[in-house]
Amino acid sequence: MLRNAMSRLRGAQHSPDRRETRDGRVRLPLPPALSASLGCDAVGVPARYGFRLMSHLPRTGCVFADAERWWWIVPAGSDLDLDWPEQVSYETGVYVPAVRPRLIHAPDSLTPYTPPIPLFLMACQVTGVAPSWAAAGRPSVVSAP
Known about the structure:
By secondary structure, the chain is of the alpha+beta class. Helices cover 21% and strands 22% of the residues. The protein has helices at residues 2-12, 50-56, 116-127; strands at residues 21-22, 25-27, 40-46, 63-65, 69-75, 89-92, 95-96, 102-105. Strand 1 and strand 2 form a beta hairpin.
């Protein structure tokens, strides 16, 4: 898995970048064969943690990388009640502040998603931050029946 990611990252460095940009952000183009029915957000971590995160996650969806950050695709709303570490960037949608990110990992499944809870816990671990959820007593978005 890591060898495949590294070869994709190296091989893609020379191809031209044709993605749309808006407000200094670059669109992460998901492979068209994948179903993103839950919507997409992106979680960016410093590149120095990329291989470590990828090697410890039980399942990995689409991962994009540039020199500064690695971006994981998660279902929209994966930031709900999670306090992502300060070093981690959580971006709604697939427009991210990056310089020519390349797809370095495509999943074996039919969806582009990395499960957000394992990604959150691993991101906390590699950045040395204790996992934190929303404060107790805050109203829940999903009401009980």
